[in-house]
Prior knowledge:
The protein is of the alpha+beta class. It has a single domain, classed as 3-Layer(aba) Sandwich (Trna Endonuclease, Chain: A, domain 1). It is built from six helices and four strands, in the order H-H-H-E-H-E-E-H-E-H.
Amino acid sequence: MTKQKIIEIxxxxxxxxxRFLKFCNNNYFKYVKQEKTFQFFVVEILRExxxxxxxxxxxxxxxxxxxxxxxxxxxxxxxxxxxxxxxNTSKKGCFxxxxxxxxxVFTKKLELKKDVHLTKQQNFLDKxxxxxxxxxxxxxxxxxxxxxxLFNIKLKM
Length: 157
């Protein structure tokens, strides 16, 4: 799914468009990657609906030394992008690993792509599911059904 399509979907769904417009009209917006654009809108919609979202920024945009320092402090690679403290299930909360499209995660046969980082992310999601959390990959193609199931948020597509 293109960055423009992601923007269109979220433009239809955001109640307060002020931050949305400020984000998209910024001179640096053209440098923002598709996945970060998706993350921005997911967080905005969740927060607009009164949910508490914790963002994991441990792995992104760090120097080699900062990455070493973070791992030395005990942070594992593969920890999900977002943690939502409440969800509609009997689970403890929800870990979401955001991807800009299904093709970034799965092959055409819907098997996890052979990638070390994806494997670590999947292992983390499996571990969190086993201890009582909802944990999943979230991408534009599955956001509609999952937002409704997890948070009672009906998105207009």
